[in-house]
Automatic annotation (TrEMBL), chain A:
The protein's name in its UniProt record: Ion-translocating oxidoreductase complex subunit A
Main location: membrane
Lineage, highest ranks first: Bacteria, Bacillati, Bacillota, Clostridia, Halanaerobiales
Keyword Translocase: yes
Spans through the membrane: 6-29, 41-62, 74-95, 107-126, 138-157, 169-194
Enzyme Commission number, as recorded: 7.-.-.-
Organism of derivation: Halonatronomonas betaini
Subunit structure: The complex is composed of six subunits: RnfA, RnfB, RnfC, RnfD, RnfE and RnfG.
Record-stated family: Belongs to the NqrDE/RnfAE family.
Compartments, as annotated in UniProt: Cell membrane; Endomembrane system
Gene: rsxA
Any GO BP annotation: electron transport chain
Length: 196, 327
């Protein structure tokens, strides 16, 4: 298969078919916690995408040049956690300096990316799927875009939900979980769109 | 096996050291100056994060104080001691801020106020108020279900056996939570030194109030007329006290025919001008009933027939011991 086409298909597959939130059920915490308003959801998505891409980049090198080279695959979890935590710290410092407005807007969610399991999951899936460097970057970026897509979609729905007549027992988190379930089923429809 | 161990330690140690170095450099490079005053102010605050100041928490308030957006006296919980400390940090003088305490403006408990119905709904004032139901015939009075006692974060409010809230002035921090919570707006924040309180909030007509409540304000306006400093005003069939003007003389409480007004201070029994009077004439024009007479540089005299014993002359007198009052 043509490599450019393959990369494109990998991207689409990561965003839609194997969406991190709705199909793999990773990163549910920010998906429910930060999806009140489309604006903050989008900022959160962008920050996560940024961190995911960087993490994919960094973990690929650590995995292939340290862990695989020295035959230490059992250290993946430990090393990836260190890398993710440091990256998030770095991004936080950078944003604080470069754009105080964005820093204020992201608030507590920025450090919370550290504990977003979607990022850890993404980092662990790269060696599992034996992606090469380019594929890893695309996979990381695609995972972030998929996360952003899912969180913005549900934020849009939740904004609409504010004005609808929800039965008392289902108000708040329950109706959001039902929505997420329906969205996940809808995303299952993408299965078979492309095959790699 | 030996090499695995060695490699693990070396690779993880190296990775950690490298990242630590990177973060260290980044923290220097991307260092953002934060006003050290913010942390100092934060230290001095009570740290309860109650939000009574109107900010999201102690940290947000500290930032506002350091930026000069919030007054140093803005923390009602900390009171004067915190205000002074903050003023010290900010290098400004603490304005005199008198501590406040919540007062209940209703005296009509189950004993005093006529009953209208039995309420068996959700046991909160908010619910009863939304349903428009009150057990009492007075639609302004205390609902008696204790929302204020529940909302008080400092356990300063308890419901007494008469179905009315009682505020413990020692525990009350004037955080305003009860004022916001009460659906009938029965709480006000009054200065701690305030001794007079008009404990009624009913805007009903006098005749109606008299019929349903033993201690309601019947709008007879006697307190308004007796007040020497015009601190009481009639607002839509209700006497309302201006705590800033009130001099705590207790005359209104004495006059009030329904005993709506509480007076906790000491009533002046006798007041007279002694031989120490230098005749400065300062007191005479201040007397609301013109009971003081006397010439310049001569001893003044209080006409005991006219005197209402409000104590204003005592307060304005600049000569120590020239006016003597007995409680």
């Amino acid at each position: 298969m043509d490599s450019v086409q393959y990369i494109l298909l990998l991207f689409i597959s990561t965003v839609l078919i194997n969406n991190f939130v709705l199909i793999r059920f990773l990163g549910i915490c920010p998906f429910l916690g930060v999806s009140r308003y489309v604006d903050t959801a989008f900022s959160m998505g962008l920050a996560t995408t940024f961190v995911m891409t960087l993490t994919a980049f960094a973990t690929y090198f650590i995995n292939s040049y340290i862990l695989v080279a020295l035959d230490l695959p059992f250290l993946r979890y430990v090393s990836f956690i260190i890398v993710i935590a440091s990256l998030v710290q770095f991004v936080e410092m950078f944003i604080k300096k470069a754009s105080p407005v964005l820093y204020k807007a992201l608030g507590i969610y920025l450090p919370l990316i550290t504990t977003n399991c979607a990022i850890m999951g993404m980092a662990l899936l790269i060696p599992l799927n034996e992606y090469n460097f380019i594929e890893s970057i695309v996979f990381g970026f695609g995972a972030g875009v998929g996360f952003t897509l899912a969180i913005v979609l549900i934020a849009g729905l939740r904004e609409e939900l504010e004005f609808s007549d929800v039965p008392e027992a289902l108000q708040g988190v329950p109706i959001t979980l039902i929505l997420a379930g329906i969205m996940a089923m809808a995303f299952m429809g993408f299965a078979g769109l492309v095959t790699i | 096996m030996q090499s695995t161990f060695l490699y693990s330690v070396l690779s993880m140690g190296g990775l950690g050291a490298l990242l630590a170095l990177g973060l260290g450099v980044a923290s220097k490079k991307f260092h953002v100056e934060r006003d050290p005053k913010i942390d100092e102010v934060n230290e001095a605050l009570p740290g309860a994060n109650c939000g009574a100041c109107g900010y999201a928490g102690c940290d947000a308030f500290a930032e506002a104080v350091a930026n000069g957006d919030a007054p140093v006296t803005g923390c009602p919980v900390g009171g004067e001691s915190v205000a002074e400390r903050l003023a010290e940090i900010m290098g400004s003088e603490a304005e005199e801020s008198e501590e406040q305490v919540a007062q209940v403006l209703c005296k009509g408990g189950t004993k005093e106020t006529a009953k209208a119905a039995e309420y068996e709904g959700i046991e909160t004032c908010t619910a009863a108020s939304v349903a428009g139901i009150s057990e009492k015939r007075c639609s302004y009075g205390c609902l008696g279900l204790g929302d204020c006692a529940h909302v008080c974060p400092f356990d300063a409010i308890t419901m007494n056996t008469n179905g009315l809230p009682e505020v413990d002035p020692d525990k009350c921090t004037a955080c305003n939570k009860c004022v916001e919570k009460c659906p009938h707006d029965l709480f006000v924040l009054a200065p701690v030194s305030g001794e007079n309180h008009i404990r009624c909030s009913s805007h009903d007509g006098g005749k109606f109030v008299r019929g349903i409540c033993e201690v309601g304000c019947i709008a007879c306006t006697q307190c308004v007329r007796v007040c020497p400093v015009d601190a009481i005003e009639m607002q839509d069939n209700l006497a309302v006290l201006d705590y800033e003007k009130c001099i705590n003389c207790g005359l209104c409480a004495e006059k009030c025919p329904t005993n709506t007004i509480d007076f906790y201070g000491e009533k002046i029994e006798h007041i007279e001008i002694t031989d120490d009077c230098v005749g400065c004439t300062r007191c005479a024009p201040e007397c609301p009933v013109d009971a003081i007479s006397g010439e310049l540089k001569e001893k003044h005299i209080i006409d005991q027939e006219k005197c209402i014993k409000c104590g204003i002359c005592y307060d304005v007198c600049k000569v120590d011991g020239a006016i003597k009052k007995e409680y």
